[in-house]
Amino acid sequence: MSVCRNLLRRFVLGGFVLLGSLVFLLPNAFAESEKITVKVDFSSAGEELENYWRASGFTPGLQLHRKDMQMTLDYLAAVPNEGIRYLRPHWLLNMVTVEDPWGESPHYDFERLYGALDEMVERGLKPVFEIMGFPRIVGDEERGTRRQGALRWVPDFEKEEDYRQWYEFVRQLVQGLEERYGREELLTWYFECTNEPDGSDHFWDQGIPALLNYWDATSEAIRSVHSGYVFGGPGNAHLLSETYKAVLEHAAKGTNAITGEQGSVLDFISVHHKALPREMIRMERQSLRYIQKNHPELAERPFWNNEADPTWGWADAMWWRPSAWYAAFLVRAVDAHNHLFIDRETVNYGYLVNDHNFLGDWYQRTLLARWQNAGDEEQFWLVPKPVYHGMTLLSFFEGERFAGEGVSPEHDDVSVLAVKRPTGEIVVLVAHGPEFGDPREQARKGEEAGQKQRQRHDAVEVELEIALSGLALGNPVFSHVRIDGEKGNAYTAWEDLGRPETLDLALYRELLAKGEPVVLERRQGVQEFHWNLEMSGSGLSMLVLSEGGGEENRHAPVVKSVSPYQTYEGGRIDFIRWDQEEEAQGVQVFHVMASHDGGPYEQVTEAPVLTLGYAYPWPEGVSEVRYRIVAAPL
């Protein structure tokens, strides 16, 4: 116990770099500069804020069987405060097999699907379960439809015999899920229709009448297992498409193909509007207005944008995806939704989901950059991008929300989110994400166009004065956390290293350390609540004010899991996750301590960690590693 106390003391005294000032980044003489003063008054009650952005998506669900995706799930589960809780993978049903689908008693095998879902559920993650894809046929080479590289049972949903068989298939599916995971767990899930039925024929190719039969067979089968299970959609790709209108009309007034009654299940309404925040909200507003005008009986259903990305094309290379701009986009989108949509509209907002959990490199729509060994797909490096840590900082925004005076929600470059958390501390998140033109320009016009955009982006500066009042804090401790073009940015570190195509162990550790959000300052006994910030290009600053006297509030969180993987070079790397302790008040930072082959515990994290997990590669020649976690207030 004395060893642990000494380690805690070492961590608190030596774990932070004190800079003594919030003014940083030398101004660029050639930059476009703007000055903004923001005041936030905490003296009265704020608006209750719920984390409606705690979700992500990817495709296909089969990737859940891959080791690199499983380590990605570890990263998602490590975001504090369940900052990422829901995942929306495509093509889940492609993992099901069926024998004799045209017989009287088809046999469905769900084990491969269960194995994929287990990887999510065991980490505390929950699916937005799209009823998407079709079972692969086994034991019959003569019949079926070839889809996604396999012979599959694809019902003709305009035929009653087929859609009623689909009803039975979905009923068995949900019954099996309930038996495996329990009813209470499934009541926390969401079920959704197939993805973008108005998009490419790759997703849906049977037309609207067949889709409505599919809708009824699917939703009624789910409800037959339990009436409390939630089903929605349509997740349309195009604004006010005929498919979107048909689903709403059918849900409100159509004849249900299964029950014969009027109306169909529609527990939430989902759309896909990909754009910069103001344009995204303009499209969402149009979709909502259509519901309010034509189907007012549906207007209070939860409204989702569950692919709310800056643009489409997950695999298209974009220069901004590894930058702090993408992290700032997340904050700007939340801020814009708070002020321009939720506050101004009569809307029951459900979820704002970014579809950003793919497996790929710096420039693709991913939270992590991956280096994979071409000779063995189970050997890889994963490095968090600034957008991942943008989700981390956003996870601390819960409690009461307060408006900032002086920055307009119409201003698309700068956002200021301010909250008083349930544990009492004040958190202010400042985001700067300059506009640089069409986010798709590089994909449309090539690398040179992307370079010009990046130059335009880097030249924009903003000076902010942040003044807080009405704080009921006795002896406040102030902390400042930063992500920008230099700090908390593994991509910039990679560029500085010469953009190496492969990483060795030393380079990987350096990128991990440089990628952690940087604690710029920590001060006790703050008297004045006024700060000046300069931001060049994109960046996030999280300012935290907590009650003094918290130095004794140190803990050694319990290690909840250690998941072993292989490094790019074939060595062992552990992903360690630990509990978020309820008795530990306020925002915390962590260090990982490791004991090698029974030796003393030593700190192996080079920088304080804000998440609840860490990837640690074993040194060569080690046969056993044990871990302890040291926590302290930010």
Tell me the layout of helices and strands.
Elements: H1 2-14, E1 32-41, E2 47-49, E3 55-58, H2 67-77, E4 86-89, E5 97-99, E6 107-109, H3 111-121, E7 126-130, E8 136-138, E9 145-147, E10 150-152, H4 160-181, H5 183-186, E11 190-192, H6 207-225, E12 231-236, H7 242-253, E13 269-271, H8 277-294, E14 303-305, H9 324-342, E15 349-352, E16 368-372, E17 380-384, H10 386-394, E18 399-402, E19 414-420, E20 426-432, H11 441-445, H12 447-458, E21 460-469, E22 477-484, H13 490-496, H14 505-515, E23 518-524, E24 530-536, E25 539-546, E26 559-566, E27 572-578, E28 588-596, E29 602-603, E30 613-617, E31 625-633
Parallel strand pairs: 1-21, 3-4, 4-7, 5-8, 7-11, 11-12, 12-13, 13-14, 14-15
Antiparallel strand pairs: 2-18, 5-6, 9-10, 16-17, 18-19, 19-20, 20-25, 21-24, 22-23, 22-25, 26-27, 27-30, 28-29, 28-31
Strand order of the largest sheet: 3-4-7-11-12-13-14-15
CATH architect. name of the domain at 17-47 and 394-549: Sandwich
Q: How many strands appear in the DSSP assignment?
A: 31
Mean pLDDT: 91
Count of alpha and pi helical runs:
14
Approximately how much beta-strand content do the residues carry? 25-35%
CATH homologous superfamily heading of the domain at 17-47 and 394-549: Glycosyl hydrolase domain, family 39
* Rough outline: globular
Structural class, from secondary structure content?
A: alpha/beta
N-to-C span: 23 Å
Largest sheet: 8 strands, parallel
CATH topology category name of the domain at 17-47 and 394-549: Immunoglobulin-like
Radius of gyration (CA) equals 25 Å
- Helical content (DSSP H or I, runs of 4+): 25-40%
